[in-house]
Design a protein that fits this description.
five-stranded mixed sheet, 41% helix, globular
């Protein structure tokens, strides 16, 4: 994988780490405290609801491209592939590097529909399969933790649309923060 990362850094390929995560409307307790001898009480909505996010993390820029849906089915992964087509796929009059997707062996990645969709993109997209039970090798897993802890932590989403809006907003904010950090680093290097 190190060679692929170097190729991505050099701009020879676009390396995308892909996976899914569940985001719940109940609080993700990132950091909490309670007075000594007191029980910790956390308000939570009555019924647990979730949104499933299919995401692709660009290895070079750390930008996250995401599809927010209700499930982790092949159809949701195919929606993410559609976003990848638009952002990284071949465009007339433009030369783009080939794309390498890093995938685990989840059901939405190995279904018949997904295999067919990946095969139809074989001219510009290839797949690197991660070993089973190795989430530590997938860079986007750390992003899910950051989103849940820093951007969405200790919050409750009582209304139906709050969770989805907040997840989309958190991803946009994480991307904006990373872009600002890159620009600041460039400015510092230029001085």
């Amino acid at each position: 994988m190190q060679i692929r990362r170097q190729q991505a850094k050099a701009g020879d390929i676009t390396l995308l780490f892909v996976d899914e995560a569940d985001f719940l409307n109940v609080p993700y307790l990132a950091r909490v405290w309670a007075s000594q001898g007191r029980d910790l009480r956390v308000e939570a909505p009555g019924k647990v609801k979730k949104r499933c996010v299919s995401g692709a993390r660009n290895s070079a820029s750390a930008h996250i491209l995401a599809h927010v849906g209700m499930t982790k089915r092949s159809s949701d992964f195919l929606s993410l592939l559609g976003l990848i087509d638009v952002r990284y796929g071949p465009q007339e009059g433009e030369t783009r590097p080939p794309v390498v997707l890093v995938l685990d062996n989840g059901p939405s990645h190995t279904s018949h529909a997904t295999k067919k969709a990946l095969a139809s993109r074989a001219s510009w997209l290839s797949v690197e399969w991660l070993p089973k039970f190795s989430p530590e090798l997938n860079d986007i897993e750390r992003d899910w933790r950051v989103l849940k802890g820093k951007y969405l932590g200790n919050r409750n989403f009582a209304h139906e649309g709050d969770l989805e809006r907040s997840v989309k907003g958190a991803i946009a904010q994480l991307n904006a923060d990373r872009e600002a950090n890159r620009e600041a680093a460039k400015a510092k290097d230029a001085v």
